[in-house]
Specification:
The chain is an all-alpha fold and 94 residues long. Helix content is 57%, strand content 0%. The protein folds into 2 domains: 1-48, no CATH class; 50-94, no CATH class. The protein contains 5 helices and no strands. It is flat.
Length: 94
């Protein structure tokens, strides 16, 4: 969201994230941050383990970033994430 808002603030994907938040939360006025909070709460409720529990370490992040940039799932992103952004996402998931 941050990358999209800062680099492509007129992207129609931003409105779609708001729609997803509305669907997830059931709140008509929900915005993207509300949807993000809902998903984070769900992860806590389901006790989704951090990536470190699967053996991922800080030293592994550069290799994971490189591989993730080549993943087909990246093609669906409305904005291309930088190496720094991908690394920060992974750090938060450790």
């Amino acid at each position: 969201m941050q990358a999209l808002q800062s680099r492509i603030p007129t992207s129609p994907a931003l409105a779609r994230y708001d729609q997803v938040a509305h669907i997830l939360t059931g709140i008509a006025t929900a915005r993207a941050p509300d949807g993000i909070a809902w998903v984070q709460d769900l992860c806590v409720a389901l006790k989704v383990p951090p990536l470190a529990e699967f053996g991922l370490k800080e030293a592994d992040l550069p290799a994971v970033v490189e591989k993730s940039k080549k993943a087909s799932s990246q093609k669906g992103n409305p904005v291309t994430l930088t190496d720094m952004e991908l690394t920060e996402i992974l750090r938060k998931a450790l």
